[in-house]
């Protein structure tokens, strides 16, 4: 391995635009890239663009009739088929939808291919992480599932074990569905409990199909879960499972919507806890997967204050040039934010918290709802993998 890292970026990914008033505002991508540049991170990480995914590659996950439906809706949005999740309130159709969705997927695919070929260790696509898209339907703002496509491509290239870790506030249902019966893929999702949040799936008893028992792991956390308990949950489950599974590549999804400012969900993480999770994923990639790591973006709807800072931290971590939380946000970026959005930008790369958590080995509190959730997941999955809960 060269030890280098790559940021997958094409300005045209900002055309992934569902229109005015939609939460998935592409300004979050523009602001992130400008903040990455303001910290001079392109000097520390190769920036490259890849072509859109073609139909045969999209077919690794998505059914041909669905791809054709997306193409039709892309040319004639008024013909979008809501039975395929297109033209809905969540996922409105727009001109060029197929092209930009395939472009985003192409960035994740190219990153995965470069990692597998040994050209680089890490590849970041913060425009990706569109984890809700199903094989035959759009869902939850997601048209093509770039995370699932990247994993499928790794398997096609010869990978025998790929771990997918989803830290978005929403369940990573599309990736889980795609690999439900594939023991070569371990999907782990930490998310708000489905009784209070879309998509209504991701309970601990969802553990994989008959051909892959224990390959799906779901940690459903109660609304209001904050830094210490969320990080306790992450570390109570993920390291043991990765050590047992032995992945050759780790694909991680870093939705910013777990943050306390996010308008669409109910967890209360700080930027500092989110940054700690990105550092942990990086460390686990080096510990368990020879450094092979494909981190992706995902949800996140506090598009000025949260998303750009988190994903800039993610790029810095992947570049082995992490941005210190104490760093001031560059003034030129804050001026750019105001010009573009008429809103003030944040002043520092921190929310002022110091992430701490108590290890699971320190003891279980039966009266704590998060501990109950952790135990439910361990009891559901660990015995299927030959581990003690």
UniProtKB/TrEMBL annotation:
<feature type="domain" description="Histone deacetylase">
    <location>
        <begin position="22"/>
        <end position="315"/>
    </location>
</feature>
<dbReference type="InterPro" id="IPR037138">
    <property type="entry name" value="His_deacetylse_dom_sf"/>
</dbReference>
<dbReference type="InterPro" id="IPR023801">
    <property type="entry name" value="His_deacetylse_dom"/>
</dbReference>
<dbReference type="InterPro" id="IPR003085">
    <property type="entry name" value="AcuC"/>
</dbReference>
<keyword id="KW-0006">Acetoin catabolism</keyword>
<comment type="pathway">
    <text>Ketone degradation; acetoin degradation.</text>
</comment>
<dbReference type="InterPro" id="IPR000286">
    <property type="entry name" value="HDACs"/>
</dbReference>
<dbReference type="Pfam" id="PF00850">
    <property type="entry name" value="Hist_deacetyl"/>
</dbReference>
<comment type="similarity">
    <text>Belongs to the histone deacetylase family.</text>
</comment>
<protein>
    <recommendedName>
        <fullName>Acetoin utilization protein AcuC</fullName>
    </recommendedName>
</protein>
<dbReference type="InterPro" id="IPR023696">
    <property type="entry name" value="Ureohydrolase_dom_sf"/>
</dbReference>
């Amino acid at each position: 391995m060269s030890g280098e890292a790559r940021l997958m970026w094409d300005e045209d990914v900002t055309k992934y635009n569902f229109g005015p008033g939609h939460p998935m505002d592409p300004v979050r991508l523009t602001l992130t890239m400008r903040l990455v540049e303001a910290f001079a991170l392109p000097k520390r990480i190769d920036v490259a663009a890849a072509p859109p995914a073609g139909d045969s590659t999209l077919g690794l996950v998505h059914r041909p009739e669905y791809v054709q439906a997306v193409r039709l809706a892309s040319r004639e949005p008024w013909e979008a088929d809501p039975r395929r999740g297109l033209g809905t309130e969540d996922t409105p159709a727009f001109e060029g939808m197929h092209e930009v969705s395939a472009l985003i997927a192409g960035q994740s695919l190219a990153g995965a291919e470069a990692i597998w070929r040994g050209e680089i260790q890490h590849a970041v696509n913060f425009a990706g992480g569109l984890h809700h898209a199903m094989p035959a339907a759009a869902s939850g703002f997601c048209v093509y599932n770039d995370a699932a496509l990247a994993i499928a491509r790794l398997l096609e290239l010869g990978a025998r074990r790929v771990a997918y870790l989803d830290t978005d506030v929403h369940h990573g249902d599309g990736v889980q569905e795609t690999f439900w019966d594939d023991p070569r893929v371990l999907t782990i999702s930490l998310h708000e409990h489905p009784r209070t949040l879309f998509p209504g799936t991701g309970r601990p008893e969802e553990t994989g199909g008959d051909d892959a028992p224990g390959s799906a792991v779901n940690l459903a956390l109660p609304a209001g879960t904050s830094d210490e308990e969320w990080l306790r949950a992450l570390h109570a489950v993920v390291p043991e499972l990765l050590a047992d599974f032995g992945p050759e590549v780790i694909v991680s999804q870093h939705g910013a919507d777990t943050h306390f400012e996010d308008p669409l969900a109910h967890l209360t993480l700080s930027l500092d806890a989110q940054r700690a999770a990105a550092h942990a994923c990086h460390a686990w990639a080096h510990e368990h997967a020879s450094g092979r790591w494909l981190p992706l973006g995902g949800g996140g709807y506090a598009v000025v204050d949260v998303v750009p800072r988190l994903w800039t931290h993610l790029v810095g971590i992947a570049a082995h040039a992490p941005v210190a939380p104490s760093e001031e946000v560059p003034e030129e970026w804050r001026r750019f934010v105001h010009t573009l959005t008429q809103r003030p930008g944040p002043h520092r790369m921190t929310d002022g918290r110091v992430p701490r958590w108590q290890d699971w080995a320190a003891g279980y509190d039966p009266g704590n709802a998060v501990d109950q959730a952790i135990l439910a997941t361990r009891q559901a999955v660990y015995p299927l993998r030959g581990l003690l809960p």
